[in-house]
Amino acid sequence: MVTNLIFILKAIIIGIVEGITEFLPVSSTGHMIIVGHLIGFNEGGGPAAIYSKAYLNMFEVVIQLGAILAIVVLYWNKIKGSFENFSPSKPKSGFKFWFNIFVACIPAGILGILFKDKIEAKLFYPLPVSIALLVGAFWMLYAEKKYRRKFTTRTIDDITVKQAIIVGIFQCLALWPGMSRSASTIIGGWICGLSTVAAAEFSFFLALPVMVGASALSILKHTVALNIPQVIALTVGFVVSFIVALIVVDKFITFLKKKPMRVFAIYRVLIGIIMLGLIFTQVI
């Protein structure tokens, strides 16, 4: 009984981490790997009946879908309007918007399908994540200083196919856990002339097909029979992730309209250094 309660409590913690970090430029996957190791929410962290690799993979997928649902709720009017104004002949049409999303998803989709297993085997550990946090932080600082103020595109409706492809190529960097899909796409957006808010919102919408597609593949690959504690943990993790992401995304956009992103880069540097210290002292 106590073991099950601890397991559910850990699931809540991971759900909070996912909800906070999924759309911030700090890497949700990286944080879940790090926090999972720190609290023992990983394979071998407890009884095999509830801490199996297949279940933990499914849990990660489910709570990510919770965070994705927050985007659907927050941007429902935009999503609904895009389908009501879908005709390619209309200005700023929904067809153009979703076509840009589609082409931007192609590069990471191809690489993800081809190399997902190898990436998980080699990079889903604290050390590669810590290095990625540092690399991404310094790149973010450089890109923001050089490109942020030089934008030509203010809104996601004005993004061109060429810009969408460039952002999609940068999204491939997020296959390295710790780099952050949000950070990679926002940096790509800066470089091709998007405003920070346009780049951030485009990254939110990119997450919809990317995460739903990745989730479908993962569920098909890791389908498992669930016991009651696992079902409860999945449900609670999903709800917590959704609620937290709902709050965080709204606050993040408000922040970007007024403040630079270097605060996230500084945070990444601090976390990366702390993690390297914990790794080399064998705490994790």
Automatic annotation (TrEMBL):
The chain crosses the membrane at residues 7-34, 54-76, 97-115, 121-142, 187-211, 231-253, 265-283. One of its GO terms (molecular function) is undecaprenyl-diphosphatase activity. It catalyses: di-trans,octa-cis-undecaprenyl diphosphate + H2O = di-trans,octa-cis-undecaprenyl phosphate + phosphate + H(+). Signal peptide: none annotated. PANTHER family: UNDECAPRENYL-DIPHOSPHATASE (PTHR30622:SF3). It comes from Clostridium ganghwense. The keyword RNA-binding does not apply. Keywords: Antibiotic resistance, Cell membrane, Cell shape, Cell wall biogenesis/degradation, Hydrolase, Membrane, Peptidoglycan synthesis, Transmembrane, Transmembrane helix. It comes from the Bacteria. Belongs to the UppP family. Its EC number is 3.6.1.27. Bacitracin is thought to be involved in the inhibition of peptidoglycan synthesis by sequestering undecaprenyl diphosphate, thereby reducing the pool of lipid carrier available. It is found in: Cell membrane. The keyword Hydrolase applies. It is an enzyme of class 3 (hydrolase). This is Undecaprenyl-diphosphatase. It is a multi-pass membrane protein. Pfam families: BacA.
